[in-house]
Amino acid sequence: MSRSIRTLSARARVTACTTVVALSALSLTACGAGAQGAGGGKVKVGLITKTDTNPFFVKMKEGAEDAAEKSGVELVSAAGKFDGDNAGQVTAVENMVASGVKGILITPNDSKAIVPALEKARAKGVLVIALDSPTDPQNATDALFATDNVKAGELIGRYAKAVMAGRPAKIAMLDLAPGVAVGVQRHDGFLKGFGIAEGDPAVVCAQDTGGDQAKGQTAMENCLQKAPGINVVYTINEPAALGAYTALKAKGLEKKVLVVSVDGGCTGTNAVKEGRIAATSQQYPLKMAAQGVQAVADFARTGKKASGYTDTGVTLVTDRPGTGVEAKDTTFGLRNCWG
Fold first, then answer.
1. Among the four residues 82, 127, 234, 276, which has the most C-beta atoms within 10 Å?
2. Taking Cα atoms as reference points, which of 286, 217, 294, 299 lies closest to residue 10?
3. Using one digit for the tens of pLDDT, what is the confidence trace for 221-261?
4. Higher pLDDT, 84 or 100
5. Are 104 and 46 in contact (CB under 8 A)?
């Protein structure tokens, strides 16, 4: 997507939390100022992320806290214990509905399995907005505020194709996990950008990493054993990319293999600057969270529901431009990174 991106700067202050409630499989924290809703009570906005350790979701929560303070609403946040923890997210939805939230913002761990819980919440009048990852089907939520993940994958696929400049490619794909829409979308986008279809013989290895650095390293080691001539590595995110780089460096291949990724966190963007990752597609979790909180606040006060898909932007970041591929350098990337 070639559009101007404006990001929301996170404030350094961390909102003081007033209540901490231990839940099975997740932690729940209520924060923010006491605003008045249409019925005279405090407007509560729920945020449920995949985990509370991934820097992307940490930054998303910070953006939501900042937006909640500005909007005068109360933020209630929860996270699964691990990536893929659908049961924890279901529990969080149920607890938030019981606590009287006006809206729930969620990054689904399982795009399909979470749908029944969200349908129950919507049936009780709760506005449900997906952040970052859509549900399956997408209309299981009222709205989606997210990166165009197909486009994010397509950008790094086009970049890799340009840098290869006609040389035969042997591609390793370090994916996320089955059933997670964001992983499928980025994977499909990369193939589209590179100009190949699923099952093309140019893809010599595919492994799931869960977006984890250690698992990314193991996956890359496995791929190198299977196909020693790999020269392009697609990674679902920057932790997986850094794991792949570690495996490549151990074999003395770090200068010979092109590694591309998605996310645009500060650690990953610095890795692009240092040459460990060739390029990344940068996305903007602060913007997702801020727009989501504001949408729930508006709904509580006016009855107007957010709907459809809102694209929160993506930018290719690299210091090694590919011919014909629009990109920004790491100076831009570091000004707009997160984590």
1. 234
2. 286
3. 999 999 999 999 999 999 999 999 999 999 999 999 999 99
4. 100
5. yes
Q: Find tokens 């992983």 and name the residue.
A: 183
Cα separation, 337 vs 335, whole angstroms:
6
Determine the Cα–Cα distance for residues 24 and 268; give it in Å rounded to an integer.
32
pTM above 0.85, yes or no: no
The residues spanned by each domain of the chain are 17-146+285-306, 149-282+316-335
Token pair 């990344």 is at which residue? 280
Q: Is 104 exposed, middle or buried (0-12, 13-18, 19+ CB in 10 A)?
A: buried
Q: Residue 326 is inside which H or E element, if any? A: none
Q: What is the DSSP letter of 265?
A: B
> What's the angle, vertex CA 31, arms to CA 25 and CA 34, rounded to 5?
140
pLDDT tens for 289-333 read 999 999 999 999 999 999 999 999 999 999 999 999 999 999 999
Cis peptide bond N-terminal to 285, omega within 30: no
Report the amino acid identity of residue 37. G
Contact 46, 78 (CB under 8 A): yes
Positive or negative torsion for Cα 126, 51, 69, 314: negative
| CB-facing half-sphere around the CA of 207: CA atoms within 13 A | 27
> Which one is the CATH code of 149-282+316-335: 3.40.50.410, 3.40.50.2300, 2.60.120.380, 1.10.418.10?
3.40.50.2300
Tell me: domain 17-146+285-306, CATH 3.40.50.2300, correct? Answer: yes
- Cross-strand pairs, 235: 174
* CA separation for the pair 173, 189 (Å, rounded): 12
Two domains, one topology: 17-146+285-306 and 149-282+316-335: yes
Look up tokens 């109360």; give the residue: 74
| Distance between start and end Cα atoms, the chain | 23
Write down how long the chain is: 339
Measured distance CA(156)–CA(189) in Å, rounded? 9
Computed over every residue of the chain, the mean pLDDT equals 89
